[in-house]
């Protein structure tokens, strides 16, 4: 990276090197773009770890309206039907875009796309690339395309720490790199930073994904939405490694069953059984584990001996711990997997802060509602990347004055993980949420490594406390009922801090003065 970062001033800045960020950069070509990535491209990104593919209505028995009906049902009343319809109608075209960029999708001997089945989908509509290595294959193609694009400058090893904002408009990004603190001036910034898995003990996401994009947006004054909705995948490999290895839902789509140590298929009486919505399966597995049982995925019959060919990544992970999926039961337990909530955006990815967009898991578009339908997330990221790029390109570039670099601590979630893992798991209750909010407050108000993760955790906790019902992935033991009218909650960091101070009976800074 040039020591004179002013040469980059005015370019759109994309923070994040996953599928959403890289595709946005590619769609902006030939306009010069700056991509800031905390890690080398293709590593430590949830996108590269994605086993599931992209959901799109490509089968002869399918269409976007059928896909939409499944999405709305999974979202449990909180999807935005208009946005969801737009995304799902654009999904087949998104597959074509990726294929054009060199993604090698799985195909039948006749050359047509091979379509898989996952939970809560009424049709086979999951497009994979490399079996259970879809994310890795998509990232391979995108990284190659980005590396060869003359309009895109990728700066790796740079971590965005704060957004410079004046009068509710972005002015640039304060970041940290091996050279120290640095300021990148721009009035067009895109957040594509991924999720929040690093805030939890049990997660299938990179531990470095600790909600930094949410913290950037929140400290800039942006509104966040649906934060309480965190998806726990019911089938993560139950072992000592963290993050945990995901056992894709596609394995159950091919006929694998969930059993306990006695061989009982305890989900058999559940509507949809193994292919019920993820929140339903995760709660059922959690409940069985809490009774002292062990839970396994039985893939010995289906897919059986074809397992290594269909799911090479999972098969390799199982073999690493001495399990042969074709002959052995696979021990499983739920783990944090995806965040339905995020920075509130409109249909072009614009946030409530002028000049700030969000794309991918960090954004809350209205597609997922209270419970993401399997494989809709990559589809959303690919579709929205184009819409965000079009919006950014349609926003005139304006000059930005240099600002002195500021030093902010690197986020470290280690002190926050025990609090969030205990309070924001599969089953929640109000008293625990209140205690957690009180514990997070001083951490969020401090100016140290814990403050950003704690601020994100506090906002999620206040959102979960505010929703006094059980809906989708949010289940309150003290409010197990389902409200007749679905309400979407938005809040800012100021709102969350005020609510936490009230719980802790601590005066605000203004009141203290």
The gyration radius over C-alpha positions equals 22 Å
Instruction: Indicate the mean pLDDT.
Output: 94
Distance between the termini: 44 Å
What's the architecture of the largest domain in CATH terms? 3-Layer(bba) Sandwich
Alpha-beta classification: alpha/beta
Query: What characterizes the major β-sheet?
Result: 5 strands, parallel
Q: Please mark out the parts with pLDDT under 50 across 5 or more consecutive residues, or reply none.
A: none
Helix content: 25-40%
How does the overall form come out from the CA principal axes?
globular
Given the structure, what is the number of helices? 16
- The main sheet orders its strands as 6-2-1-10-17
Per CATH, what is the topology of the largest domain?
A: FAD/NAD(P)-binding domain
Beta-strand share of residues: 15-25%
Tell me the name of the CATH class of the largest domain.
Answer: Alpha Beta
Supply the CATH superfamily name of the largest domain.
Answer: FAD/NAD(P)-binding domain
**DSSP summary, beta strand count:** 19
How does this structure look, described?
The protein is of the alpha/beta class and 513 residues long. Helix content is 33%, strand content 16%. The protein folds into three domains: 5-194 and 340-393, 3-Layer(bba) Sandwich (FAD/NAD(P)-binding domain); 231-335, Flavocytochrome C3, Chain A, domain 1, CATH 3.90.700.10; 409-512, Fumarate reductase/succinate dehydrogenase flavoprotein-like, C-terminal domain (Methane Monooxygenase Hydroxylase, Chain G, domain 1, Up-down Bundle). The chain is built from 16 helices and 19 strands. The strands form five sheets. It has a five-stranded parallel beta sheet, covered by helices on one side. A four-stranded mixed beta sheet has the order 18-16-11-19. Strands 12-15-14-13 form a four-stranded antiparallel beta sheet, covered by helices on one side. The longest helix has 20 residues, at 81-100.
